[in-house]
Amino acid sequence: MTFNSLTPELMQRRHQVHDTCRQFSRSPSKGNMARLKSLFAGVGEEVFIEQGFYCDYGDKITLGHRVYINVNCTFLDGGRINIGDDCLIGPNVQILTINHAASPIERLKKLNYAEDIHIENNVWIGAGAIILPGIHIGSGAVIGAGSVVTKNVPGNCLYAGNPAEKVRLLET
Fold first, then answer.
1. Which of 45, 51, 89, 142 is paired with 122 by a 20 to 30 Å CA distance?
2. pTM of this prediction?
3. 172 pLDDT tier (thresholds 50, 70, 90)
């Protein structure tokens, strides 16, 4: 999907959402947590988000039950971000649905390209990992700390590195 993130409507939405994220980071109280969660398309039971969470729009993020998001995570949600039940998101993780044209001439048009990210149930994403646009991560997978995920990850596998590669199948 292509869109122009510089329209007045989208700039106003980002400004409002960024303000909510800043309020939550300054004071991660239950009230500010509730305001942050109210931005999302869906939030399951027992979801916990540590301070330092950042997103652009919020309304394309869906979190399953018992999701834990550690400190200083960034979700660039021009596309949908769906996170299943029982997922652990480590500190400083970036989940990025947005991309730009590689061509310098095309990039001058200032368009954004959004591709949805889907993370199934019981996934652990290690500290500092980056999940790029269009990625699907299967249930039970583990993404090693500092990894850059550039292709889909099947379930019950450990992926690590830059770019992330399969390390091994996990016992189930």
1. 51
2. 0.95
3. confident
